[in-house]
Amino acid sequence: MERKVTTESIDGDIGQFAAEASIEVEDATALFDISAYPEEQHELLEECNRRIEEANSKYRIAKFREDMFAKGLKAGMYFCTFDRDENMLSFEFNDETRQMLGYDGLEDLPNEFDSWVKTLVPEERDAIVKLFWDSVRIHRELPDITHATYRMQKKDGSIIWVTGAGRFIRRPDDGSLEIYMGCYRDITAQQELEEYLKIIEAIGRVFNFSLFIDVSDMSYRMISTNEYVETVPKDPDAIRFLKNNVDASVAESFRKSLYDWLDRDMILAAIEEHGSTSMEFYSESAHRWFEGIFMIGDRNEDGSIAHIVYGCMDTTEAKLQTLAQQKMISEFEEEIYIDSLSKIRNRRFLDEKLIFKPCNAVVMADIDLFKEINDTAGHQGGDEAIQKVAKLLEQSVRKEDVVIRYGGDEFMMAFFDITREDLEHKLSYLKNALKDISIENNPEVHISMSFGAAYGTELVNNLIGTADKALYESKKTRDAYTVIDIA
Questions:
Q1: What's the pTM?
Q2: Out of 3.30.70.270, 3.10.450.350, 3.40.50.1970, 3.40.50.2000, which CATH number does the structure's domain 338-485 have?
């Protein structure tokens, strides 16, 4: 009858421990009953009993060794003996144990209790050793046979799971522990399979639709499915089956990218390099967003990928939440980072978002003789000039580049991918395009600007000073641009 036994040292993360009763060995030679003989013969009889007990002990050891060896099917074995005070006298391994753990002979793994201790996984070692000694301490309360499943560390540092049976052999007269012996075998593959099955079950719960795919022939086992997948024509090849799903349910705008993604060799290469590969798409059938993911299932002994897992996860709620957050961020940035007059980015955006980004060029610019524009067209005309200049500058750069109202009639531009030649062409174009700007009801007002540029790959912050120097040179003549190359 098997029963669970608990001691303070048993930890759920360490392993499992159970016990059961064994078959008694009854054919040992009986000892003399000294009380039945004259007193003068007692000393001789005591010596006879000592020798009989020693012979019985050797017999029991041989008998139990043979029994355990048979049950262990030449698995790993350990064997330890105790004196009548239950102090350990000896500890030894068999050769199968050393082979299982990657050790070579007695010198490599001596017959010592500490040798067994060092084969335990370091972070679990104390708990398992305590369990061993607790078992010895309470052995009279336990059945003869115990079972344990735990982890051991091989000589090369790799970890294996072992399971086995240990047997308490007690002295017939006082019940003290005479021998403790056990055998165990490597169950790593079985343990990993059980854990893997748990993972597969979890995948089925996480993914709306999932496959376990054999990469050798792309055959597959369905882990989980849904009503839309069930209507799709089945195909023995996983990639063709997934493409059938694309045809049947995915919005047309996503189909080409998904077809390109569903390539066996590209999928395997991506998994080897990154661990997984994924693609987002929209299902017209379900009216929901999904993300398809390929990841590693398991490997062959040579390290090559044996199986991959495909999972399709419903991301609709997360996507809607992300879109809502993006809208909130966009509204927030519009409120604090957009200049209310010019409708382009403001100085705060420069200071908080842009100042320490690397770029290729920074341009500082201001409107020539802006005070005269205000004097001629009034402040409303001055505001109109700023708005129209800002619009021209903003429309003249790429989406990745940034135009900022630096302050008053001053502007700044940051370019993130531009050659020196293109920069000069850009400034020349702007200088000429400004001539087409007119102020309503004030046709006599003409607008020009002075530009100063710092060219070279540097942080925005480090280019502003050089761009200011270039602007100072341009303002000497006005309606001009100057470019300074940084070293």
A1: 0.38
A2: 3.30.70.270
